[in-house]
Design a protein that fits this description.
22% strand; alpha/beta; M1 Pyruvate Kinase, Domain 3; 2 domains; TIM Barrel; eight-stranded parallel beta barrel; globular
Length: 329
């Protein structure tokens, strides 16, 4: 049976809501640790486990690590970035970034923020800051992703916070770990060794393919992963978007060739953040992923902060069920 994952957040951190989501077909939930920790999320996690016990299910708990993903720092308040506005990257600054990101910026670079929603062209670089013009604006919040187009900045595989979360993983009932921006098998071996060190060998490793380096090294990554994650958000930032469907299909085919389960995520039912009914293209996208062999599907903001978490799982499950019945037929 297909695994279906929601994402834990304020919209669904209520026992009655989580029970409804299990009743609609949810197998487990993802906790994004980019902005928090297991310790800080303990009340949410207790609610989640209580809901699973009430419904009578051995539910999965996936933790999505910080890993080598690049993010801006914390903002005092959200920034409204209008087209043609001038912004500054610095540490600290209008848009705070770590020193290794700042040093990588050059005049002419294109910076993508929040999974590419915001685009900024760098116009000048100085010793301790870089200035750019907003090409595509939006509202920027703390700790959103940052990517410099056509540049691969190497960061540690596991942060100190990641290691601390792994140390407490069994205590909080974690069943799987999602490792972001995997570039090669060596990085996953480091994750596997860290899990072993903390007696967490039974925790599954989900390898997120989020850039072309990971895609190009996929055959090297597959032996170290329990599940491959086609993470279309950042992966789509690493190429023109019209190329993404082909890359998704190539990853799917390679996983099938090696008999490796894979999961497809990002904007699965994005319109349901504000609507109780999805778009036709979204349900067709679910069908396509399963028709191409996906073993799991995941939604993110749709259940974490959307208005209709239970309805999201209902459409995800029922569409997946129709796709599986069609395959069997």
């Amino acid at each position: 049976m297909i695994e279906l994952f929601g994402t834990l957040g304020p919209a669904c951190a209520d026992k009655d809501m989580l029970v409804k989501m299990f009743a609609e077909g949810m197998s487990g939930i993802r906790l994004n640790l980019s902005h928090t920790s297991l310790l800080e999320s303990r009340e949410w996690l207790k609610t989640y486990h209580d809901a699973a016990e009430e419904y009578g299910i051995q539910a999965q708990l996936l933790i999505d690590m910080q890993g080598p993903e690049l993010r801006i720092g914390r903002l005092e308040k959200d920034l409204v970035l209008e087209n043609t506005a001038i912004v500054t990257f610095a540490k600290p600054g209008m848009i705070p970034v770590d020193q290794h990101i700042l040093h990588a910026l050059e005049k002419g670079d294109t910076v993508l923020l929040d999974d590419g929603k915001i685009e900024i062209l760098i116009q000048s670089v100085h010793e301790d800051e870089a200035e750019g013009i907003v090409i595509r604006g939006g509202i920027l919040s703390s700790r959103k992703s940052i990517k410099i187009r056509n540049k691969d900045i190497i960061a540690p595989v596991l942060t100190k916070q990641d290691i601390e979360n792994i140390r407490h993983a069994k205590e909080y009932g974690v069943t799987a770990l999602m490792q972001p921006f995997v570039r090669n098998g060596k990085e996953l071996k480091e994750v596997k060794d860290t899990l072993h060190h903390y007696d967490c060998d039974d925790i599954r490793i989900f390898a997120k393919i989020e850039n072309m380096t990971g895609y190009e090294n996929l055959e090297n990554i597959i032996p170290y992963a329990d599940m491959i994650v086609i993470a279309r958000g950042d992966l789509g930032n690493d190429m023109p978007l019209w190329k993404l469907p082909v890359i998704q299909r190539k990853i799917s085919d390679l996983c099938l060739l090696h008999q490796k389960p894979f999961l497809v995520v990002t904007q699965r039912l994005a319109s349901m953040g504000d609507s109780p009914i999805p778009r036709r293209a979204e349900v067709s996208d679910i069908f396509r992923a399963l028709n191409e062999g996906a073993s799991a599907l995941m939604v993110t903001n749709e259940t974490a902060v959307g208005k209709y978490p239970a309805e999201v799982i209902r459409y995800l499950y029922n569409t997946a069920n129709e796709a599986l019945q069609w395959k069997e037929y």
